[in-house]
């Protein structure tokens, strides 16, 4: 500090130093001023002459730099960063943390997996199930104050069909009337996306579809920002680097790769201003995140199975374990000639001692499965369980004429420790029956890109459950939904499965749908385009301050504001 022409010139770095500033300059800061200042941070240069002017500057800066009150910041840990902020090109859970917070959705799913209106105020289904009419909320606005309209919905769903957008779930919307013509470049619009008025849109389908309402839970984007962008330029548009305008409960603040994502509450959210004012997602290893939870630096984390007992002993931390709705899966790349004989794939299933593998990895928090495990009514009781039988595996390999010199590459991502540790156990089990496997681990985003590009033999990924079996069936097994149109990264093609998927959509009777999907799973269980390995329990730990969280089968730490929290705006953090 220095004196100049009788004026006090101060470059204040920390407001906590204001008391020191006042003292060193021969002025006295009041106790009230010091109390307000001690935790505030400032970057400002001031020129003042009197004590009263000092206090005015302090009051002004405190007002400008005030941080959210205690209890308004919710801190969540996650194991990997997002692959992309573009919802057309990825469906991974890590990216979904931003999608679910920031973008709009017509519907969401309640705690039982049933569709409920969200950005839509209501929806109507025609008697024959071929028309879905959506009424948007009158008070829904984008984060910049622009009203949400049917034009936004029309653009968002139409773009799924544009070949330059390369939507990973384009196949979910092929049933909209005129969508296939639009996909083929034979039309400039989609006939079945009909804008009735600014707040009403109708989806007209080529044929009735019982589960179509579930496809409307995908994301709505702002047409006043993206409507004039050529589809080929969407992926590189600056909006998807920093999507500051959405219609969700939270606004995007920033993302530091591999460190954190930050969001702030949208005060004009159509269901009411969120009570938790700031969300921070910290990205780190499981060990680091658990340590942060224990030190009260995080409020919500997924728990590795090996740490369950330790987490249970933590003070002021709640723990829940529920059966998972999805499964860990080993995918086969059926573009590879040496994996096209189903006897080879069946041999690998018999070669894996899945029950023995999961015991030391999951400590009783996982179950061997032979299906996606999303809806029990869709899964038949007579599936082949592929119980561990290495001799049967060798027999099938001999029948198929397996070349023992052929080495396979097993790809898997970092982040999920039990999955990482399962890879060498799978490698060893396959070696015991005469299949040589090389392991390749890489970051999650790179692996997804490589799997979609077909750069693998075997791939380990986890799939979350879905509210309706049609969602998983369409994305994973429909022969037309190979990348980039879908997640059929196996390049699996079965006329019988394609027909069963269509039959499931046309069936409105629950008993009939049950028969269709059970038959579909029987075919998949025999063809084995993937080996379903196990379903891990959903293990969550959270600070007891969190009020309103209801653990359920369809919840996960990643879908923090969807399956876990359909009422995100009502959640609170109690004062300590």
Brief account:
It contains 17 helices and 26 strands.
Structure description:
- The protein is α+β, with helices and mostly antiparallel strands and 576 residues long.
- It folds into four domains: 2-65, no CATH class; 73-79 and 248-322 and 538-573, 3-Layer(aba) Sandwich (D-Maltodextrin-Binding Protein, domain 2), CATH 3.40.190.10; 114-238, Dipeptide-binding Protein, domain 1 (Alpha-Beta Complex), CATH 3.90.76.10; 327-536, Dipeptide-binding Protein, domain 3.
- The protein contains 17 helices and 26 strands.
- It has a six-stranded mixed beta sheet with strand order 19-23-18-22-20-21, sandwiched between helices.
- Helix 16 (495-506) packs antiparallel against helix 17 (510-527).
- Mean pLDDT is 84; it is low at 1-51, 53-68 and 555-564.
Whole-angstrom Rg? 27 Å
Oligomer: single chain
Kindly estimate the percentage of residues that lie in beta strands according to DSSP. Answer: 15-25%
How is the main sheet built? 6 strands, mixed
How many H/I helices?
A: 17
The top-level CATH class of the largest domain is Alpha Beta
| Overall pLDDT level | 84
């Amino acid at each position: 500090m220095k004196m100049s022409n009788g004026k006090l010139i101060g470059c204040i770095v920390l407001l906590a130093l204001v008391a020191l500033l006042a003292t060193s300059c021969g002025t006295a800061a009041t106790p009230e001023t010091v109390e307000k200042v001690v935790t505030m941070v400032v970057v400002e240069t001031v020129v003042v002459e009197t004590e009263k002017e000092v206090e005015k500057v302090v009051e002004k800066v405190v007002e400008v730099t005030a941080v959210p009150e205690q209890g308004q910041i919710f801190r969540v840990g996650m194991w990997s960063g997002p692959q992309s902020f573009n919802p057309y090109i990825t469906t991974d859970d890590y990216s979904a943390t931003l999608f679910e917070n920031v973008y709009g959705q017509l519907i969401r799913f309640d705690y039982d997996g049933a569709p409920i209106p969200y950005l839509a105020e209501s929806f109507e289904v025609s008697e024959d199930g071929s028309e879905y009419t959506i009424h948007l909320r009158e008070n829904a606005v984008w984060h910049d104050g622009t009203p949400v309209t049917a034009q936004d919905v029309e653009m968002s769903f139409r773009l799924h069909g544009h070949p330059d957008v390369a939507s990973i779930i384009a196949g979910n919307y092929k049933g909209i009337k005129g969508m296939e013509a639009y996909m083929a470049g034979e039309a400039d619009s989609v006939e079945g996306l009909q804008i009735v008025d600014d707040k009403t849109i109708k989806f007209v389908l080529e044929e009735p579809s019982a589960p179509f309402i579930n496809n409307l839970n995908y994301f709505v984007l702002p047409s006043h920002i993206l409507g004039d962008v050529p589809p080929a330029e969407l992926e590189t548009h600056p909006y998807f680097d920093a999507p500051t305008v959405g219609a969700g409960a939270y606004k995007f603040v920033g993302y530091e790769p591999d460190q954190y994502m930050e969001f702030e509450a949208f005060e004009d959210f159509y269901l009411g201003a969120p009570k938790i004012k700031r969300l921070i997602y910290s990205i780190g290893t499981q060990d680091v995140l658990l340590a942060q939870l224990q030190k009260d630096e995080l409020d919500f984390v997924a728990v590795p199975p090996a740490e369950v007992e330790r987490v249970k002993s933590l003070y002021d931390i709640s723990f829940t374990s529920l059966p998972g709705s999805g499964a860990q899966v080993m995918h086969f790349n059926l573009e590879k000639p040496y994996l096209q004989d189903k006897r080879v794939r069946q041999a690998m299933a018999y070669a894996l001692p899945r029950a023995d593998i999961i015991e030391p990895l999951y400590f009783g928090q996982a179950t061997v499965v032979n299906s996606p495990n999303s809806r029990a009514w869709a899964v038949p009781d007579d599936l082949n369980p592929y119980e561990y039988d290495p001799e049967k595996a060798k027999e099938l390999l001999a029948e198929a004429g397996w070349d023992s010199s052929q080495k396979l590459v097993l790809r898997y991502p970092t982040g999920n420790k039990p999955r990482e540790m399962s890879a060498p156990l799978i490698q060893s089990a396959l070696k015991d029956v005469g299949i040589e496997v090389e392991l390749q681990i890489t970051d999650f985003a790179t692996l997804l890109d490589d799997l979609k590009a077909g750069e693998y033999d075997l791939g380990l990924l986890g799939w979350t459950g879905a509210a309706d079996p049609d969602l998983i069936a369409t994305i994973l097994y429909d022969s037309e939904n190979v990348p980039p149109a879908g997640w059929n990264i196996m390049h699996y093609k079965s006329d019988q499965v394609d027909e069963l998927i269509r039959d499931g959509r046309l069936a409105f009777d629950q008993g009939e749908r049950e028969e269709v999907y059970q038959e579909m799973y029987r075919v998949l269980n025999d063809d084995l385009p993937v080996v379903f390995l196990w379903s891990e329990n959903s293990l969550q730990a959270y600070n007891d301050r969190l009020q309103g969280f209801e653990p359920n089968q369809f919840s996960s730490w990643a879908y923090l504001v969807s399956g876990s929290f359909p009422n995100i705006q009502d959640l609170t953090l109690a004062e300590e």
